[in-house]
Automatic annotation (TrEMBL):
InterPro entries referenced in this protein's UniProt entry, alphabetically: Beta-barrel_MTR4 (IPR025696)
Annotated ranges, domain Exosome RNA helicase MTR4-like beta-barrel: 71-138
Protein name: Exosome RNA helicase MTR4-like beta-barrel domain-containing protein
Domain of life: Eukaryota
A matching Pfam family: MTR4_beta-barrel
Amino acid sequence: MRNYSIKAQSLIDWDDEQKKDMDKQKLKEISKQVVINIDDEEKGENEDQILDQPSIEINGWNGNKGRSYLYGLPLLDPVTDMEIDDDAFKEILLRIQLVERELQTKTEYHTNEMKIGLSIYKHKLQLQAQIQAQERYIAKSKKMIFEDELNAMTAVLKRFFRISYKQRKMWL
């Protein structure tokens, strides 16, 4: 018999809040050894089927070839996971958390007026994006017109032999 050991964690019985609260320490504690036993006689198709199945999940990641995360990419804490020790950065994170808490506790945040205001603001952003797209289109059109006029002027000057070949290349 062959033993294939895979360090894995069973997330099947967990609810979403437990999955979100899981950190590295809990992952190490909950991890267990999964042993897949395959007889030498039964290897072949059976072995490939067992090893290719995405039945083992590690921190929301299933082991299939697509490398997809079932619950989205895991959120990283910049201070603990990425080991950022900058005091100014920590202060900014603290301020952001305080503002988010204040915003959630305010009653104005949950009213219909706020929702209407947000929808109006989103519509305004969409209109601004459309305006910028039209301005880019106008600029591109003006550039094309200018290039056509420049080519026409160059052709006229070529007829009168007023410019040399090097000067024509410099303009175009």
